């Protein structure tokens, strides 16, 4: 039976916003290449020799610079961009742009050095030294490049797994400093910048837009909202082994533009570590006088937050995330959660509009004691006529979203047991990345359309 569409789409940005944003991003790369062509870059390549090598080095540098700025723009937390694409997709694009810009930057450095060495009849090593110390802004560029290299290396998945979130997050902030140091040499000595008024206008404009976006949306707006709502810790409650909730009070919270399912980046002013922001979803429907987050006590910062005293000031960035009712297509819903991924699901189970029998929640944990917020989930289910399924047990050896005790069932079969009409439901998913991948495969096998699957990766 086909699901009935509900009226929530009008709160999402129109599709043309997403199309226009994507077109502008791609257009910036076209402009960078066009400026290289305008500066006789192609003619230099056709002439061959060291001049051709230098010219290719120029265009790789221009595209690398443009991609670096796109990286900054993607994570500047512009509200309409975030609503159009969601943080998961923006993070993936940010990483992709970062890798491409890194390798293009490496190519730029190598090609320019080889090209200049060939034109001047000097050795490559000597030419590299001369460029670094003899040209304005180049020492800054060397330092910025070193920082960017370090960030890229530490962003590789194997390296990230060896770092605590707190350490990785702090080191990742050096990417902003790296971009700030690496790009100015283009303004001072870049042939494709100083030789063209159009190029100067373009590059100053995109630098200004990116810097302004960071200042306004990553710094200014969070500071204003933190001052405006004056959030403080009200109390901390332990919900399950290694899981705690923080209740926060504030001023005029009914005006805070947040929906169930969204998350903030939180900074608890408990002393050390306050500079590191942590993304935590709301674990209850926002109320006029109270917000609540629920977190797993993993890492030094989480234990520090769990020990926060009543009255501790809290700074916020956000709200972020599209795991809300605004993306909903169908009347019936299925919520799938694992571990601490239950936090936005619990808020959605309470807040989304549905009739009795139209909502189901499946919650995966390693042991029954690990089910956080279980009493609240049961109370909401009784009050609203929702079905809640607890799936506890260790994971199987093969990739599956089910515990080993249910290994005799296929992932798709279990979905149909929980919701026989799963293909006609909106499915909200949140949990650890490997579990999420198993869920997505099962949903694809169950023929759930992609636009009915809404997820938020619980990972970094």
Instruction: Write down how many β-strands occur, each being a DSSP E stretch of 2 or more residues.
Output: 11
The third-level CATH topology of the largest domain is: Four Helix Bundle (Hemerythrin (Met), subunit A)
Spatial separation of the terminal alpha carbons: 38 Å
Based on CA inertia axes, which overall geometry fits? elongated
Largest sheet: 5 strands, parallel
Strand order of the largest sheet: 9-8-7-10-11
Instruction: Briefly note the structural class of the backbone.
Output: alpha/beta
Tally of structural domains: 3
CATH architecture of the largest domain: Up-down Bundle
User: What is the CATH top level name of the largest domain?
Assistant: Mainly Alpha
- Give the C-alpha Rg: 25 Å
Main location: membrane
Pfam family, one: Ferric_reduct
InterPro entries: FAD-bd_FR_type, Fe3_Rdtase_TM_dom, FNR_nucleotide-bd, MRET, OxRdtase_FAD/NAD-bd, Riboflavin_synthase-like_b-brl
Subcellular location: Membrane
Explained architecture:
Helix content is about 50%, strand content about 15%. The chain has about 450 residues and is α/β, with parallel strands linked by helices. The protein has three domains: about 10-220, Four Helix Bundle (Hemerythrin (Met), subunit A); about 230-320, Beta Barrel (Elongation Factor Tu (Ef-tu), domain 3), CATH 2.40.30; about 325-455, Nucleotide-binding domain of ferredoxin-NADP reductase (FNR) module (Rossmann fold), CATH 3.40.50.80. The strands form three sheets. A five-stranded parallel β-sheet has the order 9-8-7-10-11, sandwiched between helices. A three-stranded antiparallel β-sheet has the order 1-2-5, with helices on one face. The chain is elongated, with a radius of gyration of 25 Å. Mean pLDDT is about 85; it is low at about 1-10.
């Amino acid at each position: 039976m086909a699901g009935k569409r509900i009226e929530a789409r009008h709160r999402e940005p129109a599709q043309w916003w997403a199309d226009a944003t994507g077109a502008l991003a791609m257009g910036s790369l076209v402009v960078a290449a066009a400026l290289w062509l305008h500066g006789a870059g192609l003619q230099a390549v056709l002439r061959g020799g060291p001049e051709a090598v230098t010219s290719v080095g120029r265009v790789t540098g221009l595209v690398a610079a443009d991609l670096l700025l796109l990286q900054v723009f993607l994570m500047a937390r512009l509200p309409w961009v975030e609503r159009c694409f969601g943080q998961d997709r923006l993070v993936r694009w940010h990483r992709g742009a970062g890798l491409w810009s890194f390798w293009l930057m490496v190519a730029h450095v190598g090609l320019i050095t080889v090209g200049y060495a060939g034109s001047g009849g000097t050795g490559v090593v000597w030419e590299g030294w001369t460029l670094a110390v003899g040209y304005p802004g180049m020492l800054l560029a060397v330092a910025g490049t070193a920082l960017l290299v370090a960030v890229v290396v530490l962003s590789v998945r194997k390296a990230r797994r060896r770092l605590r979130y707190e350490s990785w997050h702090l080191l990742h902030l050096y990417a902003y400093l790296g971009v700030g140091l690496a790009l100015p040499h283009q303004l001072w000595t870049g042939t494709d910048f100083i030789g063209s008024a159009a190029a100067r206008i373009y590059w100053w404009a995109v630098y200004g837009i990116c810097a302004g976006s960071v200042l306004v949306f990553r710094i200014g707006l969070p500071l204003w909202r933190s001052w405006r709502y004056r959030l403080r810790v009200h109390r901390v409650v332990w919900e399950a082994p290694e899981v705690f909730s923080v209740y926060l009070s504030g001023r005029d919270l009914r005006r805070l533009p947040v929906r169930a399912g969204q998350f903030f980046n939180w900074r608890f002013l408990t002393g050390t570590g306050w500079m590191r922001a942590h993304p935590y979803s709301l674990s209850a429907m926002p109320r006029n006088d109270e917000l609540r987050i629920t977190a797993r006590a993993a890492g030094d910062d989480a234990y520090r937050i769990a020990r926060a005293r009543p009255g501790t000031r809290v700074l916020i960035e956000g709200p972020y995330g599209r795991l809300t009712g605004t993306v909903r297509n169908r009347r019936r819903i299925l919520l799938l959660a694992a571990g601490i991924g239950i936090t936005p699901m619990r808020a959605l189970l309470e807040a989304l509009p549905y009739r009795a029998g139209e909502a189901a929640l499946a919650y995966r944990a390693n042991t029954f004691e690990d089910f956080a917020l279980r009493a609240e989930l049961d109370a909401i289910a009784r009050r609203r006529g929702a079905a809640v399924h607890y799936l506890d047990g260790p994971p199987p050896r093969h990739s599956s979203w089910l515990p080993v005790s249910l290994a005799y069932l296929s992932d798709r079969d279990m979905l149909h047991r929980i919701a026989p009409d799963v293909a006609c439901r909106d499915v909200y998913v949140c949990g650890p990345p490997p579990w999420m991948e198993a869920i997505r495969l099962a949903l694809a096998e169950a023929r759930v359309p992609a636009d009915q699957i809404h997820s938020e990766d619980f990972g970094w």
